[in-house]
């Protein structure tokens, strides 16, 4: 436990970056489940690569949110967490290497 706390103190940007990337995946899964619950055909969203779901699931959600009167913020939160998490992870890893 002491080693984990030491790593968090040493490079918090990488840890927060990993956490935000995980949060984007969790949000994408929740949005995907919501699309499935209302009967939206979402099988094509994972057609090529699983990582593309982070881009295609929010787009499908945004097109369905006006029809089902949902708030669009979860789709934007996925993208925000993904972009900021990637930036923090890369910056943290460069800082760790330097």
Kindly describe this structure:
The protein starts with a helix and ends with a helix. It has four helices and no strands. Helix content is 78%, strand content 0%. Helix 1 crosses helix 2, helix 2 crosses helix 3 and helix 3 packs antiparallel against helix 4. It is mostly helical. The mean pLDDT is 85. The protein has one domain. It is elongated, with a radius of gyration of 16 Å.
Question: What's the gist of this structure?
Answer:
By secondary structure, this protein is an all-alpha fold. 78% of the residues lie in helices and 0% in strands. The model has no long low-confidence stretch (mean pLDDT 85).
Low-confidence stretches: none
Helix content: over 70%
Nearest-angstrom radius of gyration?
16 Å
Global geometry? elongated
- Helix count equals 4
Q: What is the H-and-E element order?
A: HHHH
Proportion in β-strands: under 5%
The assigned structural class equals mainly alpha
> End-to-end distance, in Å?
25 Å
Instruction: Give me the count of strands.
Output: 0
Number of domains: 1
The largest sheet is: none
Give the averaged pLDDT, no decimals. Answer: 85
SSE map:
Layout: H1 2-10, H2 12-37, H3 53-68, H4 73-97
Helix pairs in contact: 1-2, 2-3, 2-4, 3-4
């Amino acid at each position: 436990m002491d080693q984990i706390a030491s790593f968090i103190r040493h490079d918090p940007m990488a840890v927060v970056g990993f956490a935000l990337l995980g949060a984007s995946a969790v949000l994408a899964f929740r949005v995907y489940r919501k699309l499935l619950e209302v009967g939206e055909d979402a099988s094509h969203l994972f057609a090529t690569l699983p990582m593309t779901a982070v881009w295609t699931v929010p787009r499908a959600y945004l097109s369905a949110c006006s029809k089902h009167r949902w708030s669009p913020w979860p789709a934007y939160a996925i993208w925000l967490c993904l972009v900021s998490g990637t930036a923090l992870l890369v910056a943290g890893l460069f800082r760790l290497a330097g």
